[in-house]
Sequence to fold (682 residues):
Amino acid sequence: MLKIVRYLPCARFMVYKKWYLLCLCLAISPTLNARTFYISPGGNDANRGSLEKPLRTISSGARRARPGDTVFVLEGTYRERITPARGGEKGKPVTYLAEPGKRVIVKGSEIWKPGWRKEKKGIFSARPHPSLFTDHSPEYLDHYNPLKVLLASTPYGRNGLPEYQRKKTGDRSFQSVNKQVSYTCGQVFVEGKPFKQVPLEPELTPQTWWYQPEDQRLHIHFGQLNPEALCIEITTRRRLFAPVNRGLGHIIVDGFIFEHCGNQYPTDFWKVDKYAQKGAIGLEAGHHWVIRNNVIRYANTFAIDCGRVDRHTPTRSTSHHNRIEKNYIIDNGSAGILSYGSSNLIIQDNVILRNNSLHFSGPKRWEHAGIKCHNMVNGLIVRNYIADNPHSPGVWLDNQFPDSEVHQNIIHHNGTHGIFLEMSDYEFDRLFVTQNIIFSNGKNAVYIHDASGATFANNLLACDLHLESVGRAIQIKQVSQRTRSQNHSFYNNLILGSAPTVEVNYPAFRSGPQRFDYNLYGVPADQENFIISAYSDQPSPWTAKAFNELIRRDIGAREETASLATGNKLVALSPKEWGIFWQKHQIYNDQNSRFLPEINLLYDRKLFLLTLELSIDAPKIKADATQGQVETIFELMKEDSQSFPAGPLQLPLLGKQSFRVWNGLPPCSKNELPSRGGEYQK
Fold:
């Protein structure tokens, strides 16, 4: 059909296009009375918004839209912040729809063509005119110009401004830093590629920039390039799609490319008003939103917020029943998705890559991850591809997460942990982590501190493909007085890592019971694979010698062995000693687990193939074996009525087996837009 249309005369083509768009909009309109407002770069906001006379800005459509209406945005670039005036109703959402298969780009930047002043070789400066900064939203407590707003936490591991500013809030730990060091929320793009901000003029090198607050000039190092011949964009808006009024519901955002947002790092957002969680896309405590089929990239800090935002949002208005699905969330400054207080949140089928590009790390820099959710109730994080987020965990759940599930995600090559759990206080089985493929993250596959009540079942947990990681496959420890670290369960997992593979706290003195069984460990049965730790925020009641003696008594050892002679409060145990230790504490851990001397893993990023190689046959663990090559690894995870479900790769065969672990949206390279079946192709 498209080939035929391509050769039709212009008039007939327009008739066809009108018919096509009308049918499409009727299909998505929930009622006969619903209206469709068309938006085009060639339109005029004085028009009525028909296909023949479209509006010029998406914001104009947002002001007009009522429940059940659609704002249909035609191909083009729109430099604006979209602020929905109202939400929809049950069965009558307000829909913002980008023209299918086309590049509909919403930018938080403006093309900048100033009169340049040459400062040094390769370095030019200019002062942005105030008229460039048009988003004067009342939500900004500091300034609407991103260049004049401090970033709130210093990236690249540096100490300096704006931490110095925060001593006014009572945080005394930041009073001694260098007051000259400053980063802002602005960004500079040259020919579509981001240049790096530096905090001091002497640090300017090619493809970097520096903002001088005294005279408000941007200094850019172009190297050998002539700025007059380049397309230069600077961020002029701090958000791209976010209402001002909180609690709007039933809004759909579908098919856009959002980029160049000058937002701020949400440092201590629960107590400092101006550092609130405000993403490029912000739900502002909204409910029944759907964010799908979008690309969100180059936000200065993070892409999407979907929770309470700050301390002033009433608890009763906690975001609920929101869905974030099938988006590319890539190359953002700190994080992909952040949520503070949400219920019934679904995050599914997204590609979340290379976020925390500014490399936030260290104290007071806690809001960076592929996905980080505070106070999530009845949430679902499912079928996401989360990889290559530097200095960050893949998934970070914090401050309670009851009745939630993390399911069938691919989590690999993130800077710290695959999954990080923090701050919960529940009995067993209040969080389920199931059928995830977690490998080759910078530290642990699973890291838990000050948290209780999670169940891990049917996962691949590997701290490194080649068993060389400094981390553990599983590490559970106590680091503060907030809650205890106890009541976790690990059943039917394939657990791989360099010895030691598992570390847990001694089940007394701020810790408690842990359950392990029906697991397959990729280590020899006589290897010192397990660590018992006496680590705690409070002074331990034991010296290292006393702690070792305590463990010897627990396992019935009459003399110090190599496994016990660690010289500190970390005692390594063999699987046999591990079993005896837990029986002493009335828990029968890993009685039905199995240990293999070596399991090798390889991963093909292009084909998404995970290859498992065994030198000997694996023993069966009360589940039906699935043999040969399969389309997806999750086909191995079938219920078995006689025991726990079979875990991933739990019943492998001698030799090599390959499993396809991802069938979703294809990941894309850095600084490139994704391609989805012909979409976004140049």
The chain has four domains: 2-107, 109-149+184-235, 252-500, 599-660. The chain has five helices and 49 strands. The first helix runs from residue 2 to 6. Residues 2-107 form one domain.
